[in-house]
Write a structure and sequence with these properties.
Layout lengths: L6 E2 L1 H4 L4 E5 L6 H13 L4 E6 L4 E7 L15 E2 L4 H14 L24 H5 L12 H4 L7 H8 L5 H10 L14 H15 L3 H13 L36 E2 L1 H12 L6 H7 L29 E7 L4 E7 L6 E7 L7 H11 L1
Antiparallel strand pairs: 1-2, 2-4, 3-4, 3-9, 5-6, 7-8, 8-9
């Protein structure tokens, strides 16, 4: 899983701001050359990993620093933002397999005071079909800041707000649409799913994901609901995300591209959830599955470019970080493309395009 079987070209390129490793296998030569050209030509910042279930094809760390002042590498820890949702959905399906939960369960089974959720199910939360307002994108409306002072907002930003206060504000809000009638991305859905996981297991979200995913898969550089363990340096002035507990289940995980590859490989090897659960999770109802999106949701899609049906992904962003976990060839020979950056940039589009062309 490290770099023992890869060729280190850092010394060859003579640029300390770029680190690259690649597979020596001839079958990957064309893709390796294209990725090398793209990374050299474009403003690619952060860590990139391209791999199959058997090989790491390409790995790089470019134009960004870690907390030690060194160029980042595939072992550098970044904030992965909403890619967290793939993990949360997997935990939900584990509980379904154990008979502790049903996708048809009413949200009011777990939040009986939430009267406006009477017709809302766990399925709706997973598929972004609940109609619930997004607390992250519509903060002032969600918390009705007309009637609250800055101290209230600061309690959220400092991660001091209790679940009770969060839910109290949620219960007052009207839904954007009738559950299951439409699709609208909302982080609030996955915060509620994390709370449901905690109520069913009697453990914190952090404890449960560590014992069911991180530790069994050897994801030793990954964490949930933690602050201070990110080793990459953000390039935006907003800095690190602090409200980890408040974002649990929706965008709180920190990880590396190497650890994310461990997760992806295990997921498709049916080591996290069963084959039937995977099929249900990748049912892209309205374009959004359970922690997976269709290409129609993607930010990199060029106008007029055909949308491949054999691709799923999830992106994530926090105050200063962006992450993409993309799986090509879902029904055949899979290629995983994982990218983590300490800034917001669309310079990674050529990397995505190179991988797509390689699979055609």
């Amino acid at each position: 899983m490290q770099y023992e079987n890869l060729i280190n070209v850092t010394e060859e390129i003579g640029n300390p701001a770029e680190k690259m490793w690649y597979s020596p296998k001839a079958e990957y030569a064309g893709l390796v050359q294209k990725l090398t050209d793209v990374v050299n030509a474009e403003d690619i910042r952060g860590a990139v990993l391209v791999a199959t279930d058997d090989d790491i094809i390409w790995a790089s760390g470019t134009r960004s620093k870690d907390i030690n002042g060194e160029t980042v590498s595939p072992l550098t820890v970044f904030e992965i933002g909403s890619v967290t949702k793939t993990f949360t959905a997997s935990l939900v399906f584990r509980l379904v397999e154990e008979g502790k939960l049903s996708l048809a369960d009413r949200v009011t089974d777990y939040f009986p005071e939430y009267a406006k959720a009477e017709d809302m199910t766990v399925y709706d939360l997973l598929h972004m079909q609940s109609g619930i307002l997004d607390f992250a994108d519509e903060f002032e409306k969600f918390f009705d800041m007309r009637n609250k002072d800055k101290a209230f907002e600061q309690s959220f930003r400092n991660d001091e707000m209790s679940d009770g206060v969060f839910l109290e504000n949620l219960y007052k809000l009207d839904l954007k649409f009738t559950p299951s009638s439409d699709t609208a991305y909302s982080n609030t859905n996955y915060v509620l799913l994390a709370m449901i996981i905690e109520r069913l297991t009697g453990k914190t979200y952090k404890e449960y994901i560590e014992e069911t995913i991180f530790e069994p898969l050897g994801m030793s550089s990954s964490s949930a609901v933690s602050v201070g363990d990110v080793t990459s340096v953000p390039e935006q002035e907003e800095g690190y995300h602090k409200a980890q507990r408040r974002a649990r289940g929706a965008g709180d995980i920190h990880s590396t591209v190497i650890d994310m590859l461990k997760f992806d490989r295990a997921y498709f090897a049916e080591k996290i959830v069963s084959k039937d659960s995977m099929a249900a999770m990748m049912k892209l109802d309205g374009g959004y599955g359970c922690g997976w999106m269709s290409e129609g949701f993607c930010w990199w899609q060029e106008n007029g470019e055909p949308k491949g049906s054999d691709l799923i992904f999830h992106s994530g962003s926090t105050l200063s970080y962006i992450c993409d976990n993309i799986v090509f060839g879902v029904s055949g020979r899979r290629v995983y493309l994982i990218m983590m950056s300490p800034c917001f940039t669309d310079a990674t589009k050529p990397i995505i395009g190179s991988c797509k062309k390689y699979l055609r």
